[in-house]
Amino acid sequence: MKKLATILILCGMLLTSVIPAMGMDYGDYLNSALEFMQDMYYLDMDDEEALKAALKGMFGELDPYSGFYDNQETQMINDSLQGSFVGIGASLEKCDEGVRIVRVYEDSPAERAGLRDGDIILAVDGVSTFGKEPSAVAAEIRGEEGTSVTLTIQRPTGRLDIAVQRGLVEINPVSWRIEEDVAYIHIESFTSNTSGSFQKAMDEIERRGITKILLDLRDNPGGYVDEAVAVARKIVPEGLITKLDFKSERLSDKEYYSDLKNSPYLLAVLVNENTASAAEILAGAIQDSGKGVLIGQKTYGKGVVQNMFYVLTPEAYAKYGKKYGLHYITSVEWLSYEGVLLDPDDLLGTIKLTTGHYLTRNGRAIQGVGLAPDIEIADRTLPNGIDLALINPLKNTATLTLDAYGDDVCQAEKILRAAGYFNGTPDRRMDQETQEAIRKFQAENRIPATGDIDAQTRDKLNERLDALRAEYDPAYMRGLSLLKSF
Q: Which of 90, 224, 339, 484 has a CA between 20 and 30 Å from the CA of residue 166?
């Protein structure tokens, strides 16, 4: 209920008191169309199913970004944009024995309980996972915050039961590292916690006196405009960031500004054809400000914005209409105009609607056009599915041996997979498959084939990482080289 109230207030702030006159009344016509669909369609559907189908068709045909979503679909959208969810914090994949954990999220209930990448889940609360899809197992693991689930785990050392208390899982959309005098920052998407995570990176960057930033926005689909603006305000000098221009008089146009004086940062921004929406707002603000260059391919060109509107059930629509003598279909209208906060049971789902477009600092409209890079260069390729830019160089000081566990093991497996030595899924455990790949790598590089990652093997793996980036990610290398030249 608290999340719903917050979303409604945020939407309500956009609505003004201007209510345009209604057009033609299609009430009887639409009712007849719904009755015809229910009668003639070969499968049975109740009134609510028919209404949802009609709404999906009505809004889904407007453009690729608009649509109607029922309450379950709405929750999934909200979870993805919030950057957090209630669960244990583990990604799963199918394997012969059941389901394998391929990633345990940092500081998650799963990590605190002692689960590890590579653990095989044999049972959930005593119920076997054999033959089940990962999505089905994930549904069995999910539950209310504060409750517990017991997972039967298979490891090389044996079988054990681990009880995990479900809780809030935060997904960090920002990753970063320092390479000599350059900070590399990758933003995956603009969820509700992006700017906070970005600030943590900036705190360390400022502490170390670094002013050169390689910002990776490739494949970033966008997200919350406010979050992209908040990031821009930390690195873009004072002036307009973007302007939102809405068609409806009930939505107030909005301009976002940066107040940052004398920005010290020199920026190289990696973009490609999948850099879209809010990511283009940030990239456009950097380009127009003259504080950075775009490197890569022309961006996607999504220069329009959407709003989410909760819509009432027909029963709630009739109930509130009778009580107030008004006919609003969305909860944000009831909140903005009448101060009525609806109960979640009154809601059928949400309409995501394209309501306007945005302009860059210099007044560019990029819908269907995109942002042209200052330096056009071929996009990266992902050898064996590995994004080389996201690999951190190995830093281990102690030799990593069989059953070693940690981030360095995961990074080594990614390098080995990209180079064709390792066929498994990179995780944080060094098992026999990992060691066999290391032995092949060591033998080809004239290193004693122990299967362990000692200092010599570590350095050779880091050298291979540099060589792979040069071969497969020219945009990354160009950005890094450009910044280091200053």
A: 224
Determine how many CB atoms are found less than 10 A away from the CB of residue 356.
19
Closest CA to 358 of 251, 455, 456: 251
Q: Which amino acid is present at 393? A: P
Residue with tokens 């690729």: 64
* Phi, psi (degrees; rounded to nearest 5) at 69: -135, 130
Confidence (pTM): 0.86
Rounded CA gap, 49 and 40, in Å?
14
Which amino acid does the sequence have at 258? S
DSSP 142-164: ---TT-EEEEEEEETTEEEEEEE
Do 374 and 50 form a contact (C-beta atoms < 8 A)?
no
Angle of helix 225-235 relative to helix 278-289, nearest 10 degrees, comes to 20
Q: Which of 72-81, 158-167, 358-367 has the lowest mean pLDDT?
A: 72-81
Phi/psi for 142 (5° steps) reads -65, 155
Phi, psi of 143 (to 5 degrees): 180, -170
The whole-angstrom separation of Cα 124 and Cα 138 is 10
Q: What's phi and psi for 397, nearest 5 deg?
A: -95, -30
Q: Residue 145: phi, psi to the nearest 5?
A: -60, 135
Q: Which tens digits make up the pLDDT trace of 297-312?
A: 999 999 999 999 999 9
Tokens of 57: 């068709």
- In terms of Cβ atoms closer than 10 Å to its own Cβ (0-12, 13-18, 19+), residue 446 is exposed
Closest CA to 188 of 180, 202, 176: 176
Contact 240, 361 (CB under 8 A): yes
Q: Assign residue 349 a region: left if phi > 0, alpha if psi is -120 to 50, beta otherwise?
A: left
Residue type, 99: V
Q: Are 262 and 238 in contact (CB under 8 A)?
A: no
Tell me the pLDDT tens digit for each residue of 469-484. 999 999 999 999 999 9
Residue type for 72, please?
Q
Asked if 480 and 179 touch (Cβ cutoff 8 Å), the reply is yes
Host H or E run for residue 229: helix 225-235
Instruction: Determine the Cα–Cα distance for residues 159 and 119; give it in Å rounded to an integer.
Output: 10
Fill in the DSSP letter of residue 390.
G
